[in-house]
Amino acid sequence: MIPSIPQSRYAKGIYGAYVTLFFIYLAAPLVVVGVFAFNDSLFPSMPWEGATLAWFFGDKAPYVGIFHDSALLRSIGTSAFVAVWVTLLSVIVGTCNAFLFERAKFPGKNLLYMLAISPLVIPGVILGISILVFSNAIANGIEDSIGWDLDFLRPGLFLVIIGQFAFITTITTLVISARLRKFDITLEEAALNLGATRADAIRTITIPYLKPALIGAAIVSFLMSFENFNTTLMLVGSDAPLTIAMFDRLKQGSTPALNALSLLLMVVSGGLALISVFAQRDRSSK
Amino acid sequence: MKHTPGSVAGNGLKLGVVLMATPLLLWLVLLVILPHLDLLMVSLRERVSYGKYAFSFANYIEFFTEPLYWNTYVRTATMSILATALTLVIGFPISYYIAKVMRGRGKSVLFLMCLIPFWVSELVRTFGWMILLRESGVLSHFLQWAGLVDGPVEMLYNDVTIMVGLVYTSMLFMVVPLVSVLDSLDDSLIEAGYDLGGNAFTVTRDIVIPHAMPGIASGCIVVFMLTLGNYLTPNLLGGKSSLWFTEQIYTQFITRFNWESGSAFGFLLLVLSSLIVWLGLKLSRQTLSDTVG
């Protein structure tokens, strides 16, 4: 079943048809979401009532488009706020971890490495509840002993950021480590021989080399944070990030404004996906 | 002196190592280790009176004696195993096609087409399935238009639909490791298999699948874990009849505010998930670092 082995046209045809069907299966839900963003009906369902842009720009009830839906717009802001913090924290800590695991030698390194990748095998819901239970215990302990009410340890954005950071850091660590492992250490040694301090060598040689991985890790963390649902669900307070707000709308049944929003999300995340893929490709050809 | 990466730093940089390890340790201890220990502690206590707790196995006993909880647990595990198997069976020929049949530009385009849907939020993908499958949905209208059915058909809220959604959501995590492992299989091995009198079936069984084993293992482990811990897809596509274990955890925590039994459920799910991951790694003789790295 490789091109150099002759196959009957019949077998080839069936195989090709299967692959085609598979890609229809992959594309169907996304295409449907996009198309119904333009349906001139109050519900994202059949029949087709003609095309409209009202679900993007409409401002008269019941045709409230996404650009006039203040609740959803606010939740986009909330998600972006969370995602920026998560990205910043997890890329910084991930870089530290990568240097530690790739460069340093210390006892217990393997155990720490195992622990560092363990968040990947913890279901998101459980990561969420464990952080919820623990932060609540700390908050209660502090309140009982010294009487301070630490509000940020109760469900809310701080906990959402912390919870997402807890597993996204594993991913940034892996991405940055993989690039650092390929770094030619003699370049840094040359800089040191030429009189650079260690900090200078890292800043002018190693970090620029790591840049594609840092950008890749940042894009991935931003998207993973923006789209996270399971961990966020358990830690969310009164400010709902976008996924939570969309989930509530979906449960209630929603207007095609939700399709319009989904279409915009698809365009943005698809674009980011392409950027990161092409960044990766340039890297390998260098 | 031999220059290894560690010795460039020199011994004088012990302090540096400690400084660098601080964020790592803070992260692991405060956000991973202690919360899970606390989860275990909370699951092992029982509320005696207001604000007073005693050590007890009551939450675990409740789990094993209440058929609803136990059945949901077993059902979630069984459905996850089935979803993993289906994802593998559907994804394998696709991965093989991308890795071995396609050449050059078409290959990377096809691979990209596999990846892109998964950059879109799971919520959006599930929403798409809802529009396709609901009573007033696209498929129902198509069937009526084609004259195959008389009235609207509701295709949401049953197990088959949950399965379709779960397989869809997991596909990427199966296809990527499979494509990369099949890419590394030398074509000449397949040709040799045919030269020695093999046919498509025997070559696949004796050459392709044994070679792809590491990819199959890592794909299955990741898919199983994600399916087991999924909340969105069973909840939205299965509705009230989905009976997924993560929903039980959510109900105990958020709706009933019974954190003790919710913690016990969470811990049981964690044990199941870790057990299967461990078993998968043992059977395929891999380590966790190989699988995720």
UniProtKB/TrEMBL annotation, chain A:
Keywords: Cell membrane, Membrane, Transmembrane, Transmembrane helix, Transport. The chain crosses the membrane at residues 15-38, 80-100, 112-135, 155-176, 213-237, 257-279. Signal peptide: none annotated. GO terms for cellular component: plasma membrane. Residues 76-276 form the ABC transmembrane type-1 domain. It comes from the Bacteria. InterPro entries: Bact_Polyamine_Transport (IPR051789), MetI-like (IPR000515), MetI-like_sf (IPR035906). Its main location: membrane. One of its GO terms (biological process) is transmembrane transport. It is found in: Cell membrane. It is a multi-pass membrane protein. Gene3D superfamilies: MetI-like. Belongs to the binding-protein-dependent transport system permease family. CysTW subfamily. This is ABC transporter permease. It comes from Thalassospira mesophila.
UniProtKB/TrEMBL annotation, chain B:
The chain crosses the membrane at residues 12-34, 77-98, 110-132, 160-182, 215-233, 263-281. Signal peptide: none annotated. One of its GO terms (cellular component) is plasma membrane. It is a multi-pass membrane protein. It holds the Pfam family BPD_transp_1. It is found in: Cell membrane. GO terms for biological process: transmembrane transport. Keywords: Cell membrane, Membrane, Transmembrane, Transmembrane helix, Transport. InterPro entries: MetI-like (IPR000515), MetI-like_sf (IPR035906). Belongs to the binding-protein-dependent transport system permease family. CysTW subfamily. This is Spermidine/putrescine ABC transporter permease. It comes from Thalassospira mesophila.
